[in-house]
Amino acid sequence: MDAPEACPWYGQIVAIDDPGFYVTALSDPAEPGERISFFIMYWYADPAEAADFELPATAEGVTIGSSAADVLDAYPGATEVTFDDISRGPRTQIVAQTSPSTTYNFDISEGVVTEISWGEGLSGGGPNGDLCGL
């Protein structure tokens, strides 16, 4: 996992520029690389095009391009949160608890999943802000 010198806790583990698919892992900034805290799966192309690619999915089959209804069907205890990301502006997510300390966070835009985060410390939504500036 390559990490920028300025933020060794941030590492891109998948980068496919066309169509714009990325997976990033983050560790604790106080102990970079010791233990991954969470992952983020980004999709920068049209979410409707995601069905044309074999993308990772949760065990329940939710992935980029899934509908918000699919997320709520797969995770009936999930909650919707909206927050103002300090770097990206307003975001809406469906947060699904997966263990006492971990969650899936599904970013929703126009009714479909556009980004998925999973791991620790995300139960209130997020991640929030510039991840290299933690």
Structure description:
Strands 1-2-3-7-6-5-4 form a seven-stranded antiparallel β-sheet, with helices on one face. It has 134 residues and is mostly beta strands. It contains one helix and seven strands; from the N terminus they run βββαββββ. Helix content is 5%, strand content 41%. The model has no long low-confidence stretch (mean pLDDT 87). It has one domain.
CA gyration radius, whole angstroms: 14 Å
The structural domain count equals 1
> Cα distance, first to last residue?
18 Å
**How many helices?**
1
Strand order of the largest sheet: 1-2-3-7-6-5-4
Main β-sheet, in a few words? 7 strands, antiparallel
Number of separate strands: 7
Into which percentage range does the β-strand content fall? 35-45%
Mean pLDDT across residues: 87
Helix content: under 10%
Coarse morphology: globular
Structural class comes to mainly beta
Weakly predicted, low-confidence segments: none
User: Which series of helices and strands comes N to C?
Assistant: EEEHEEEE
